[in-house]
Amino acid sequence: MNRKQFLAGMAAVLSGGLAGGLAATRANAQEEMPADDALPKADDKAPRDPNKGPVTNLPLPRYVSLKGREGNVRRGPGMTHRIDWVFTTAGMPLRITAEYDRWRRVEDYQGMGGWMQFNLLSGSRSVLVTQDMAEFRDSPDGQARVAFQAELGVIGKLMECNADWCRVNTGGEKGWILKTALWGVDPGEVID
C-alpha cells in the first residue's frame, strides 16, 4: 500500500465515522427535543409587573444612595459603554428607574443619569434639600420651633416620614422638614 492509498483509506474511515457520529448526534437531539406543542409560547409567559424590577423584584422607581465618594455613570448597561457622568458626592440620593443584570439605570434630582453597577449603590435612604435655607423643625408641625436651617443642596440621612413631613439627620442635626422641600422621597411615601 502506498501513501496515497493509505491517506484515501484513512479519509474514508474518518469521514464515515464523523458522518455516523453526526447522524447519531442528530438522532439523539431529535429524541430529546419536546414536541412543538410542549414548548412554551411567548404569550404563555406570565406577565411581568412593570412596577417591579425584573432582576430584584423591588419597586420601580425607587430611591437609593451613592455608596462611595464617586461612581461612574455609563451610557448603557455594560463596561463597554462610555462614561457620561461621574457622581462625586457620597450619600447623594438617586432614583433607580430600570434594572438589567448587575446594572441599574439611575437619575439624580436634575434628571441626569445613566447606568451604574449595583455595587456602587446603597439601599440606605438619603434626601437632598431643594430649597435654600429650608427650615427643620422640632416636630412635624408648621408651628413647631425651628431647630435649624439648611442650604439648597444639603444631603441628609432619611430617618422617617409621615404623609407630609420627614425626619432627617444632616451632619448630626436632626429635624423635621416638609417633603416638598426634599428630593429623594415620594409625596405619599411613609417611612417608619
Question: Could you please describe the fold and organization of this structure?
Answer:
The longest helix is centred in the first third of the chain and has 30 residues, at 3-32. Helix content is 16%, strand content 35%. The chain has 192 residues and is of the alpha+beta class. It has three domains: 1-45; 62-124, SH3 type barrels (Roll), CATH 2.30.30; 127-183, SH3 type barrels (Roll), CATH 2.30.30. The protein has one helix spanning 3-32; strands at 62-66, 71-74, 83-87, 93-100, 103-107, 113-117, 121-122, 126-129, 134-137, 146-150, 155-161, 165-170, 173-178, 182-183. The chain starts with a helix and ends in a 9-residue tail after the last strand. The strands form four sheets. A five-stranded antiparallel β-sheet has the order 6-5-4-1-7, with no helix packed on it. Strand 11 and strand 12 (165-170) form a beta hairpin. The protein has one helix and 14 strands; from the N terminus they run H-E-E-E-E-E-E-E-E-E-E-E-E-E-E.
Short description:
Residues 28-61 are annotated as: Disordered. This protein has 192 residues and is α+β, with helices and mostly antiparallel strands.
Name the strands of the widest sheet in spatial order: 6-5-4-1-7
* Approximate helicity band: 10-25%
What is the approximate shape?
A: globular
Number of helices: 1
Low-confidence stretches: 6-44
Provide the gyration radius in Å: 30 Å
Give the name of the CATH superfamily of the largest domain: SH3 Domains
Q: Look at the structure and give the mean pLDDT.
A: 84
**Strand residues, percent:** 35-45%
Number of domains: 3
Please give the number of β-strands: 14
Could you state the order of secondary-structure elements as H and E? Answer: HEEEEEEEEEEEEEE
The CATH architecture of the largest domain is Roll
Main pleated-sheet profile? 5 strands, antiparallel
User: Between the first and last Cα atoms, what is the distance in angstroms?
Assistant: 91 Å
Biased composition (Basic and acidic residues): 38-51
Organism: Cypionkella aquatica
Pfam family, one: SH3_4
Keywords: Signal
